[in-house]
Amino acid sequence: MAAMFQNIHLREVDGRHYVFAPFAGLSIEISRDIVEPIKEILNGTVDASTDLAGWADFLREADAVAPESRQDNNCRVDANGNVEFLPTDVTLSLTTSCNLKCVYCYIYGGDENRSMPEAMARGSIDFVADNAEKTGAKSIGVMFHGEGEPTYNWSLFKKVVEYAEATAETRKLDLTLSLQSNGLWSDAQREYIVGHVDDVGLSIDGLAEVQDVQRPVRTGKSSFEIVKKNLIALKELGVEPAIHATVTPTSVGKMNEFVTFLGKEAAVPIVQFDPVHGAGRAADIAVTTAFKTEFASRLLEAKALGKSLGVEVEYSGCGYATGDQYCGATGGQLGLAVMSDGSVSSCYEVNSEEHRLGEFFVYGRYDVKRSQFVFDQQRMKRLLGYNYKNNDGCSTCFAGLTCRGDCLAMYSREHLLSGGRSPRCSLNRELVDRGIVSRASENHKGATARASREPSSSALIAREDPSEKAAIVRRQAQDDGGRALSGQ
């Protein structure tokens, strides 16, 4: 029998029991004697006339709090079985060149020197602008990311930025320009970026002893000092970049030092830590169970420290997502990432047909001679129909509500094509469990006592007043801003 409740799980962690409703931002520790009755409620086998009716009402209210699915899908199959694809956002990988040689680069950035033809970049922007006019959209988005450092070919970067701005102005469209960069800019480049780019993300792994080892400049110079200078300058200009940091077995113990720097010196509002993934140059880095366990502990320490410093600490495997997709690599809001050679992928980490996951993510290419995109309908349909719940164990997993099957670029080819699990599955589950315990402890400190069969005046679950219980659920969901409970 299918479970009546889709967004609630009952979890046992270290011998203690919790009701977990991530979209409602709810985690409640319950006493052992009420575990079986709660199971009956969640399975739909409890009699509504029993003394547990209040619990049932409360859980239904919590279960009803769910993210709204996006209605602005850019990709759908029409009545004739053809894919209609009208994206209004594009990610451009302008070059494979890079001035760093990161020890873990998933795509071997800088080993080749190839740049996108300017005509291809213009054609990609025209394509999304045309789609905006066809669909009545008011805006377009251009993201610079991909195989190398987007600003490395500076003249091309500027030409494409200015073409996007001119196109949006001519067609009376709003434009959002985004950039994910390594931050190795001159003063003049920084000034230009601040004046033109709306959203800036920087990849920096830590202080000098970490950054210069993991993300060295190809010439051997320190990358930290240059990035630090630009980071501090951005603060002075009122720009708040999002920081992404990759954690390796040698740097996992230095996350707190970095969070302290970000909070006290750079005034950065958010940093996302992710453990290194064994692909590309990182193929020889041992991503062991012990490393993942230590990463989980250090992440939660960094999160607590960040909270005291005004820095939000995140991890990509446990977050808030809408619908049944982890990101736009699959599903109805399909990503359009155009690589420097014209390959089109739904994931900016998978740049070609030759990539180990190319047959899954790459679904077309830009034909320069014809000045148009050519898409593979069958591959688009597979991406469109992908659902993480079909993966091994995901449909019933308590962490599935927050990880959504996790980043598919992390998967092995075999697991991706056959419905296997993410290599970070155990890490994600551990972090969600720790988040459940942490949130329940916060509830307890906030005078929301451990819930049991017998209600008390301080209990979060007060069976005598279901309306009050519903209000609590709604308030918690609003206070959390709809974010999933995942140790975040």
Q: What's a concise summary of this model?
A:
This protein has helices at residues 35-43, 53-64, 118-135, 154-170, 187-196, 208-214, 224-236, 255-266, 289-309, 358-361, 377-385, 400-403, 413-418, 425-445, 466-479; strands spanning 9-13, 16-21, 26-30, 75-77, 83-85, 89-92, 139-144, 174-181, 199-203, 242-247, 270-275, 312-314, 337-338, 343-345, 362-367, 372-375. By secondary structure, it is an alpha/beta fold. It folds into two domains: 9-66 and 432-479, no CATH class; 75-375, TIM Barrel (Alpha-Beta Barrel).
Describe the protein.
- This protein has 488 residues and is of the alpha/beta class.
- It has two domains: 9-66 and 432-479, no CATH class; 75-375, TIM Barrel.
- It is built from 15 helices and 16 strands.
- The strands form three sheets. It has an eleven-stranded mixed sheet. The protein has a three-stranded antiparallel sheet with strand order 1-2-3, with helices on both faces. A two-stranded antiparallel ribbon has the order 4-5.
- A hairpin with a 4-residue loop joins strand 2 (16-21) and strand 3.
- The two termini are 33 Å apart.
- The model is unreliable at 446-450 and 452-488 (pLDDT under 50).
